[in-house]
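Dock coenzyme A; give full complex structure.
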Amino acid sequence: MRIEPFDPRHATDREYAAAAAFWNTIRSEFLPDDPPIPLEERVQGWRNIPPFVRVWAWSVWEPEGPRIVAVGNVNFLDKEENRHLARFDIAVLPEFRRQGIARRLLSSVAEVPRQHERRLLIAASHGAVPAGEAFMRRLGGQMALADHTNQLDLRDLDRDLLGIWQERARERAAGFELGLWEGELPEEEIEEIAAMFEAINRAPRGDLEMEDEHWTPAQIRQFEKQERARGNESWTMYVRETRSRKIAGWTDVAWNPNRPEILQQRGTAVFPEFQNRGLGRWLKAAMLDKVLRDRPQVRYVRTGNADMNAPMLKINTALGFTPYRSHYTWQVDTEKVLDYLRAREVAG
Ligand SMILES: CC(C)(COP(=O)(O)OP(=O)(O)OC[C@H]1O[C@@H](n2cnc3c(N)ncnc32)[C@H](O)[C@@H]1OP(=O)(O)O)[C@@H](O)C(=O)NCCC(=O)NCCS
């Protein structure tokens, strides 16, 4: 097996094609009903990784063959907060598992947090692929957060509820107004939008040793550029207090024409001083109304929620969202991973 560095921003056509095929195979294990992601969308996503994301990756190639059989990558965000952590992802094609390939990739991956003095590693596994959990436990990882992709089949949606929630908002949230940004976020309001995104820090993070995240307008623009390059079209709905002009909360969705039936509902958050006025319900109902009107191709709406996020789940469950896929987020001390690798080296 050959292990080679993979630079996602500047790979060759051959590397991109092999990596895209690899990730589609891995993806089909936990999303078997979804269409594969086209090569061009993947390549645009890689080429446009925001500059503040520091990323290292390696591919393991089949001997003599054109196939990538395993990938390891590690990244961290070059920002003020969370300077203690890095995220990694290792995946191996099913027929090449249990041969020590992930361990080999891990020894490259773990060098990065060691050199950059990041003491904590974070990774995710899928409920549908228990090997990921076994691997993380073997490294001494702690399961820090359980979440689900929850899905709403729009054919099961109680459409009357959308009307009722929006009607009720007229009374409960008198003094607030609804707004919408389609596509690129407006330059005049970008500072305010960066502050608006802070509300997502209210979402529970379980036992994850993570600080609140903050976004600068420049970082938001970099993300938008990547989203656009991948072909994602996004809508952001917000509610504003009319008197103070303050944004109280928002929800945003992304849709990609390569998967016309699926819509991703990304964040929804309301600031604490505005909670319990039905703003969250209003936002979700108004957005679904717009989806039904303007994106009739969409059949499924998906959203990721921590299992412990009772307020969000209450709204989603009432709308008809049901658990679709489970995920776990793991954390493990970099030092623990290095100890494991050293012990295996001695044993080997
Ligand atoms: C998790 C995954 C990367 C492991 O790859 P792999 O090449 O089979 O793992 P390795 O052979 O290098 O095993 C490394 C260690 O994990 C253990 N392990 C791996 N899979 C295991 C399983 N299914 N059950 C029990 N232990 C397992 C191995 O026994 C080994 O321990 P050892 O050092 O004591 O021998 C692979 O199953 C995969 O691609 N899963 C999908 C992606 C994923 O969930 N990644 C995890 C988050 S980064």
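Observed: The chain has two domains: 2-148+329-347, 158-319.
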